[in-house]
């Protein structure tokens, strides 16, 4: 074994020891392994009490290492082969092979966690669960069991495909698949049952999505440094930029999670859960200091050809990171404080009490904070404005109208996700339909007219390493991909825009999405994405695989919009309510009947289509007019260039066209003269 490999093993052992120490301390201090066994109740035994958090910690660490190895292969190391035939470097392929083995271990740890979880829920020893039929019976019925089974399957897929992957696009696909596999397990824990479960669920999703690349990326960069691999300065710099964003996301989402579970600040010191959360906050601040030290001390040392300082410091940071993850697992095994007052049935479903009777004023003023869409608006708005500022600073112009259109689109998202509309949407189908119509048919128009892709292509800088793929190159590759060529085809985009609405509402999918916060987010994001895809094809300002002529765009508009009217009429004529089980459970005492409210929602869907149609017609008219103006100016410039080049008619399209007409007229005149001459002879 080489000296570098031995150093990697020592660093890994130190991180594991720190993780185990803080995990055991947190479990003991939190009381999750010292609970008294009540006679007469089922007891899973000491093996489950200790085995479940240990397997969960192993699963979290292995998932982060898998993501880190895939990140190193897909993003940290530069792509070789140039644009014509991009391929992964030798080190990147090595990290993919490592990701394959780590993902297999991740799947095994998730399977062990699944067994321990079933034993813990049923209160039976692990041996009884493995030898009986409980495991197969409860996997599909327990949310935690279903989530862990999904993790096992996805991790196995990553492990198998990583062995044969050699292209950058495939590596990014595996990274995305591993990112999806991170989410099911943590989202079925305390976050799903917290008082503010919608905010807590989104906070946990953001937290996990930022922690895994941060932890895994640090581990891989540390190993890269200890092994003395090539391109360490570039790898360390790229990780440092990503880690800064991860740190901010982890801090913000962690703060949201703490507030959601501990609304009273005194609980931070008076409860076991609060004290563990406070310890995690201290560890988070310590990791922030490590990051600052890296930026100011170790990264310059790496640039100067002294990687040893970075490797030693990163190894210590990895140990602190491992200890923090052990503390996080102990925190997840500790129950948060119970609410002071028992929750109503409606609050357990919605996350908040039944609001008062709906009025137009309350729809505008009775706010409902949605962390996911608040973060989405902040990110989209911040990136767009940052790109505009970059263009302005280098002397390039960008239309204020496009900027205003983008900001108006974001404002419409805020109007239906952060106000009383979002509070009443889960309760009243009519308000939900109004939210749907805005996000699906109004917001995308303004976002598409804002031309974000064109702005990104102009603002992003090319990759520093020749032949590598930076954000600009990846965006260009996506625009030229076969996948985008298929979904951006006008027929496909129209089918997604129209058919998905009927499939969602006239199948059990709608009620399933309403009962689950993540399902509700997925449904709302689909409204926004499908509408943006359709109006991108219709109003396409940004580069697209296929551009329709303006008459075809008008035809597509008039063919598509009646389908939403048909959808509204179908809702108005239904005799059975959609998602009856959900709306019966949250039926407000001041509301009308469920079926009447559904008919009102159908009327909104039927009448709302006129608004986006009118806006699209105005936008298309302006686009058509300015397109013709640009074409005319282009022809004039070409004619001027042809005149300066010597006046050759073949260099001027207009002159060539006039010359062709003259030749046709001359031919017709000659033919007429010949015909007249033959007539005179006869």
TrEMBL record:
Q: Where in the cell is it found?
A: Cell membrane
Check the record and name the InterPro entries matching this protein: Caa3_assmbl_CtaG-rel, CopC/D, Cu-R_CopD_dom
The UniProt record lists the Copper resistance protein D domain at 235-331
Look up the domain of life of the source.
Bacteria
Name of the protein in question: Putative copper resistance protein D
Query: Could you tell me the Gene Ontology terms of the biological process aspect for this record?
Result: copper ion transport
The UniProt keyword set, sorted, is:
Cell membrane, Membrane, Transmembrane, Transmembrane helix
Q: Transmembrane residues, as ranges?
A: 54-77, 98-122, 142-162, 169-187, 207-227, 239-261, 273-292, 313-332, 371-391, 403-425, 437-460, 481-506, 518-541, 553-572, 603-626
Q: What PROSITE patterns does the database record attribute to this sequence?
A: PROKAR_LIPOPROTEIN (PS51257)
Give the residue range of the signal peptide.
none
State a GO cellular component annotated for this protein.
plasma membrane
Topology relative to the lipid bilayer, per the entry, is: Multi-pass membrane protein
């Amino acid at each position: 074994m080489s000296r570098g490999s031995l150093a990697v093993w020592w660093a890994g052992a130190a991180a594991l020891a720190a993780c185990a120490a803080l995990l055991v301390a947190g479990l003991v201090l939190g009381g999750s392994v010292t609970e008294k066994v009540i006679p007469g109740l089922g007891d899973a035994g000491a093996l489950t009490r200790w085995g479940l958090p240990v397997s969960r910690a192993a699963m979290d660490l292995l998932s982060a290492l898998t993501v880190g190895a895939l990140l190193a292969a897909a993003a940290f190391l530069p792509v070789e082969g140039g644009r014509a035939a991009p391929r992964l470097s030798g080190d990147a392929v090595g990290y993919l092979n490592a990701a394959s083995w780590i993902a297999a271990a991740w799947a095994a740890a998730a399977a062990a966690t699944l067994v321990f979880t079933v034993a813990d829920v049923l209160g039976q020893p692990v041996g009884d669960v493995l030898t009986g039929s409980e495991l197969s019976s409860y996997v599909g019925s327990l949310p935690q069991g279903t989530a862990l089974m999904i993790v096992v399957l996805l991790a196995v897929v990553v492990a198998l495909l990583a062995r044969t992957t050699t292209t950058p696009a495939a590596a990014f696909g595996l990274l995305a698949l591993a990112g999806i596999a991170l989410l099911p397990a943590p989202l079925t824990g305390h976050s799903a049952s917290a008082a503010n479960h919608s905010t807590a669920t989104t906070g946990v999703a953001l937290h996990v999505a930022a922690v895994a690349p941060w932890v895994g990326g640090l581990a891989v960069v540390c190993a890269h440094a200890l092994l003395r691999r090539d391109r360490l300065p570039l790898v360390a710099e790229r990780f440092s930029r990503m880690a800064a964003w991860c740190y901010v996301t982890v801090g913000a989402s962690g703060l949201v999670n703490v507030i959601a579970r501990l609304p009273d600040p005194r609980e931070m010191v008076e409860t076991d859960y609060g004290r563990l959360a406070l310890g995690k906050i201290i560890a988070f601040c310590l990791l922030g200091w490590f990051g600052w030290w890296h930026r100011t001390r170790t990264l310059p040392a790496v640039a100067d050809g002294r990687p040893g300082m970075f490797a030693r410091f990163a190894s210590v940071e990895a140990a602190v990171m491992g200890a923090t993850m052990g503390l996080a697992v102990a925190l997840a095994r500790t129950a948060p404080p119970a609410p002071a007052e028992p929750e109503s049935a409606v609050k357990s479903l919605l996350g908040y009490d039944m609001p008062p009777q709906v009025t137009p004023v309350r729809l505008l003023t009775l706010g409902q904070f949605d962390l996911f869409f608040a973060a989405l608006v902040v990110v989209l708005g911040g990136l767009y404005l940052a790109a505009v500022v970059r263009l302005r600073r280098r002397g390039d112009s960008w239309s204020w109208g496009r900027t205003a259109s983008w900001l108006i689109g974001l404002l419409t998202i805020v109007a239906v996700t952060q106000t009383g509309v979002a509070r009443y949407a889960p309760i009243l189908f009519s308000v939900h339909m109004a939210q749907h119509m805005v996000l699906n048919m109004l917001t995308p128009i303004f976002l598409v007219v804002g031309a974000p892709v064109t702005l990104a292509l102009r603002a992003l800088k090319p990759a520093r390493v020749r032949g590598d793929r930076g954000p600009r190159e990846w965006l260009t590759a996506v625009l030229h991909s076969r996948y985008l060529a298929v979904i951006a085809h006008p027929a496909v985009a129209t089918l997604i825009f129209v058919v998905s609405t009927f499939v969602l509402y006239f199948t059990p999918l709608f009620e399933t999405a309403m009962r689950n916060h993540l399902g509700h987010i997925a449904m709302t994001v689909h409204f926004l994405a499908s509408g943006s895809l359709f109006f991108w094809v219709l109003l396409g300002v940004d580069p697209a695989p296929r551009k329709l002529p303006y008459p075809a765009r008008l035809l597509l508009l008039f063919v598509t919009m009646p389908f939403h009217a048909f959808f509204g009429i179908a809702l108005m004529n239904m005799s059975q309510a959609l998602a009856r089980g959900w709306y019966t459970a949250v039926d407000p005492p001041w509301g009308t009947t469920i079926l009447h409210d559904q008919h009102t929602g159908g009327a909104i869907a039927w009448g709302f289509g006129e608004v986006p149609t009118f806006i699209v017609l105005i936008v298309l008219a302006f686009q058509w007019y300015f397109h013709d103006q640009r074409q005319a100016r282009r022809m004039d410039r070409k004619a001027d260039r042809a005149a300066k080049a010597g006046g050759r008619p073949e260099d001027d399209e207009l002159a060539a066209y006039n010359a062709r007409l003259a030749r046709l007229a001359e031919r017709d005149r000659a033919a007429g003269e010949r015909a007249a001459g033959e007539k005179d002879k006869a």
